[in-house]
Amino acid sequence: MNTKNNQRYRETEIRMDAAMLELMKHTEFEKITVKKICETAEVNRSTFYAHFTDIYDMLDRMEDFLHQELLESYPSHSNPEDLPFSDPLILLFLQHIRKHQYFYRIALQTRRAFPLKQGFEPMWNLILKPRCQAAGITSEDEMMYYFVYFQAGFTMVVKRWVDTGCKESESRIAQTLKNCIPAVWQTSKGDLE
Question: Which segments does the entry list as coiled coil (predicted)?
Fold first, then answer.
């Protein structure tokens, strides 16, 4: 029986994800349909809907999976306070984006809203909030404005990089991202070196 989270269920979902990624390489997102995903993955429509509510749900879940893959790629001895500002961790992030650029090109085009603290919880709690507090900002509402500013800029830099086929080197984009860090978070010059 193919019940949720058994081996067969997971293998089917992986096939559908792979089909979606393959379609993303050469098809505009607006032209990707459930029918095409099912044909490529060799599954029925009912199988697709047993796993996902629609294509956007599929994208969201694929993004969650890739986010988890990214987190697992960070060295276990990494200090969470280094995120996202240390060169090695930014480079790992950008290598991950380059590896999955077909997915991120579409995910960033179809994003309906910035994820704000969702998925950014460690960055918010361990880095951004303490840096705002160190700068004398105590209102979480005001902190959130800085966070939104940083996240929007960060996302748009990555989107531009992906939209241009990741032509620039990871180190060049990493430097651009570091240059965009709000001055209020740069508590000391040595933090970013």
Answer: none
For the chain, domain boundaries: 1-52, 55-192
Question: What b-and-e string marks burial along 83-116, b requiring 16 or more CB atoms within 10 Å of the CB?
Answer: bbbbeebbebbbebbbebbbbbbbbbeeeeeeee
Instruction: Please report where in the chains the tokens 């004398």 appear, as a residue.
Output: 136
Instruction: Return the C-alpha torsion angle 66, 67, 70, 71, nearest 10.
Output: -140
Query: 164: which 2 tokens?
Result: 């241009």
The answer to whether residue 170 scores a pLDDT higher than 80 is: yes
At the top level of CATH, the class of 1-52 is mainly alpha
